[in-house]
Amino acid sequence: MILVTGGAGFIGANFALDWLARSDEPVVNLDKLTYAGNLQTLGPLQGDRRHIFVRGDIGDRALVTQLLARHRPRAIVHFAAESHVDRSIHGPDAFIQTNIMGTFNLLECARDHWMSLTDEDKAKFRFLHVSTDEIYGTLEPEDPPFTETNPYAPNSPYAASKAGSDHLVRAWHHTYGLPVITTNCSNNYGPYQFPEKLIPLVIHNALAGTHLPIYGDGKQVRDWLYVGDHCAAIRRVLQSGKPGESYNVGGWNEKPNISVVKTICATLDKLRPRNDGHSYTDQIRFVADRPGHDRRYAINAGKIERELAWRPEESFETGIEKTINWYLNHGDWVENVTSGAYRDWVTRQYGTAE
Q1: I need a surface site. Which of 85, 112, 186, 308 has the fewest CB within 10 A?
Q2: Closest by Cα among 244, 241, 253, 247 to 313
Q3: What pLDDT, in 10s, does the model give residues 260-304?
Q4: Which CATH number is associated with domain 2-187+226-251+296-313+340-350?
Q5: What is the pLDDT of residues 283-295, one digit of tens each?
Q6: For residue 330, is pLDDT > 90?
Q7: Could you give the CA distance from residue 329 to residue 113 in angstroms, rounded to a whole number?
């Protein structure tokens, strides 16, 4: 049994689906179901006895303690986080509460659980903390990609909150011996991503015939990682990663934002042409840049390749075509999460989320 936090969000839900497609080991899935959590993503697991979904907050110590005592997981895979930079600029409170205080609470519950285990089970237990490359700050065009030894230099409230959670995880290992591992990933994309992030937003807006907004000059560079590759990396780290270590997980795919958007437009021109015969690039609009926008992130994923024999399988070109095809074939999912119908259903089903 493993406990997954944030398992109804984009990466967490992909991980849960992927895990149970490859293993019969059950998953307890704890998610608060904020706006970005979507039970429809977990629809294929409905009725699957290997998947136990619990709506709840990682900050609820009584609930987390109860789940750990009841299910006795051998590992915790911690995805739960507020993760959108723009939202953190407009409202940082939730990021501090969830990413820092929530992780602190989870670490304390995990430590109590770990201390209750037999020596054999203690040795096998893992707390895998899923973090981001944004904790390293920004790179100049000529700088080498981030390695695990780069100093932390977060530049947004989101990045700062994730840096804080990383430091807590490290401290709980060095102070208490809790067997933790941290992964720092680059920008993920793929199926089931909430359409506030660049790639699903551009796909959604393009098909809706609205503007494709690009911050500033569009030359901000990101390393793009297909979510299926990220899930494979997490499985590998959980299996063979060394406690106390951190592993950078990247796609070896540095792309400027404007290039990403134009690639999406070109792919849609081929797969779903506009009725008027024009290219989707006609819908591109440059908008005022956001405050403190980092210019470049790039991940050196050499350590995880050398030590754990993991490397991404998808290029950006193959991954983006898979992603676009998924969105073209799942318009109902996108419509549901953007229309408010899903949030209405959650309210009816569970009551209003805090």
Answers
A1: 112
A2: 253
A3: 999 999 999 999 999 999 999 999 999 988 888 889 999 999 999
A4: 3.40.50.720
A5: 999 998 888 888 9
A6: yes
A7: 43
Neighbour count for residue 138 (Cβ, 10 Å)? 18
Integer Cα distance of 162 and 167 in angstroms: 9
- The pTM score is 0.92
Task: Supply 314's token pair.
Answer: 């998808």
Which backbone phi and psi does 94 adopt, to 5 degrees? -65, -30
Write out the catalytic residue numbers: 133-134, 158
d(Cα 38, Cα 42) in Å, to the nearest integer?
7
Q: Cα–Cα distance between 88 and 109 in angstroms, integer?
A: 26
Q: For the range 277-282, what are the long-range contacts, defined as Cβ-Cβ under 8 Å and sequence gap of 24 or more?
A: 280/206, 280/212
Amino acid at 289: D
Instruction: Return the higher-pLDDT residue of 339 and 2.
Output: 2
Number of other residues whose CB lies within 10 A of the CB of residue 139: 19
In sequence order, the 6+-apart residues with CB closer than 8 A to the CB of 231 are 11, 14, 15, 18, 19
d(CA 33, CA 110): 22
Instruction: Name the phi and psi angles at 112, rounded to 5.
Output: -60, -45
> What is the tens place of the pLDDT at every residue in 4-42?
999 999 999 999 999 999 999 999 999 999 877 889 899
Pseudo-torsion of CA 130, 23, 54, 91, nearest 10°? Answer: 20
C-alpha 157: how far from chain center: 17
Bridge partners for 115 per DSSP = none
Main-chain dihedrals φ then ψ at residue 177, nearest 5 degrees: 85, 5
Number of residues written out for the chain:
354
